[in-house]
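Workshop exercise sheet. Pairs work together: one partner reads the sequence aloud, the other fills in the structure field after running the prediction. Swap roles for the next sheet.
Pair: D.N. / O.F.
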Amino acid sequence: MAPAPLKIAIIGLGVMGMRHARCVASHPDATLAVLVDVDRARRDAAVTEFGAACAETIGEIRGQADAAIVAVPTAAHAAIATSLLGQGIPCLVEKPFVASPAEGVRVAVAAKASGAALQIGHIERFNPAIMALFDRISDPSAVRAMTARRISGASARVTDIDVVMDLMVHDIDVMLALKRQPVVHVDAKGDANHAEASITFADASVADLTASRIHPVRIRDLRVFLDNIGLEVDYIARSLTEIRTGDGGNAVTTSQPVHTGDALVSQLDAFIAATRGDNIIVPATDALAVMDVAWRVQAALGLPTP
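Structure field:
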């Protein structure tokens, strides 16, 4: 017999929370249990769209949900996730994971103590092009260098965090997951809205990242350099291209197969599976490693750090 649909609470009904709510509402293995936000107008709008129960605080949802997606501002992640996990409620926590190392440890300890699944919302892990890239690279030590650009104009949606936490964390996560190597050096220049960082791994491979909120053109790409092979990801087009040196030294470009699918749906699939005992695709340990590098980038930029 197939398991019953997972009853999921959405905590935080901003832009990202509403995207999660729509994803859950349309998923065959999940149902919207309750919508939570301190803002009444947001609650009313969500109830009008989905017809689900609503609440002002997480204290009102006990017994109503099997799992929760936490999409409130980062400053509130630790308190909310720790409370829910302490009740044995599995959580998918949006990125950035936490606001300080101590908060990250506290949330991870709560998950371990209760045994509830804790997945972090690094959505690009589920981008079909990135999934194809991971399938293509069987040996992380073969990666010699990486470059990433995540560029766009100012966003009215995100005002509480700088460009490192808003945009660059996506690429830090993908690069750390590809290399699986300690980061031994971080350098950066820029400011809160435009940052360029250089990361050196223990095996001397390097990664250069640019994140910007001041450019009118939206760019999301990643280049991975192996010996005599280049792999290029276009996040927006969801494409993966291989570049090799052909006869006569000419570059030969080949499009690589990429599965179709929506990253948010794939992330929800993974979270539902994790609540049922499968491996967690983006565990807290991965997210804390990402946050550590992000905080080091912030420090190199002279931005506030925990």
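Discussion prompt: The CA atoms of residues 67 and 292 lie 27 Å apart. What would you look at next?
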